[in-house]
Amino acid sequence: SLSDKYGLIGKHLGKGANAVVRLAKKVDDWQKQPTYYAVKKFRKRGKDEHKRDYIKKVIAEFCISSSLHHPNVVEAADLVKDDDGRWCEIMEYLPGGDLYGRMAADKITTHDEINCYFMQLLKGVEYLHSIGVAHRDLKPENLILTAKCDTLKIADFGSSFVFRTPWSTELQLARGACGSGPYIAPEEWLMDDDGRPKPYDASKVDVWACGVIYYTLFHNSVPWREAQPSDVHFRAYVTTLRREKPFTPIDSLAPGPRELMRSMLHPEPDKRPAVADLLKTDFARLVEVC
């Protein structure tokens, strides 16, 4: 059973739209210290949801997350059912909490720390994109920290999208808005003449989300609720770009962060750089990882 293999399920760690994450503690006689796991318990299948489609979604998420191995990505170890028959993903446990909690507690106090976290985020996303995976739900709540809060790891691949399969150079386009309000790129909201979502490059929406996260690290607030013309703050931002006028929250920053943020938050996805190119900038190369 789940408890026999990974220990007793206890403390609540987090909750999302499709799952609840709890802490598991495994104690073995031959170990001096217990082993801890984060257990992601998936939601129940919806009444109108076909069993095959539900299982496909769960397994697809695990297939992606379990294939990822990078210092800035959370490791997934197993997919099992609990005693109630609910699917659970077993992941490494990071006791530092998420980046959102650290920001909310005003514990990020220096620009060096901001840039350190941000560069780790870019390195994790660069790895994902190098193997053809876009996260599509990057936000501070999905960035988890180690015990000393010096290492950041990307978590929750429930919205991830494979935009390039192995041994293929053809780009697969995604459709439909995915993620959380302020971090959703403007092209994700677009519709064609028939009212269907327009296709978009999923890797470029990750770049946009990284830009918004960088903004929130500096200002401890989001720049807009949604990147749509109906949002007054986003509309003001786009207007400053068109008129080539300064947007104070960004243009008041030092040259390095300002240039990165401007490039990532370009409303036109084709004009956003790839993450690999962001890491090659002179500023990024000078940032020390904490």
From TrEMBL:
Which InterPro entries does this chain map to? Kinase-like_dom_sf, Prot_kinase_dom, Protein_kinase_ATP_BS, Ser/Thr_kinase_AS
Statement: the UniProt record of this protein carries the keyword Repeat? no
Q: Has the keyword Nucleotide-binding been applied to this entry?
A: yes
Q: Which residues bind ATP per the record?
A: K41
Q: Which reaction does it catalyse?
A: L-seryl-[protein] + ATP = O-phospho-L-seryl-[protein] + ADP + H(+); L-threonyl-[protein] + ATP = O-phospho-L-threonyl-[protein] + ADP + H(+)
Signal peptide start and end residues:
none
Gene Ontology MF term list:
ATP binding; protein serine/threonine kinase activity
Q: Which GO terms describe its cellular component?
A: cytosol
CDD domains referenced in this protein's UniProt entry, alphabetically: STKc_HAL4_like (cd13994)
Could you tell me the EC number(s) of this protein?
2.7.11.1
- SUPFAM superfamilies documented for this protein: Protein kinase-like (PK-like)
Q: Which family does it belong to?
A: Belongs to the protein kinase superfamily.
By what name is this protein known?
non-specific serine/threonine protein kinase
Lineage of the species this protein comes from:
Eukaryota, Fungi, Fungi incertae sedis, Chytridiomycota, Chytridiomycota incertae sedis
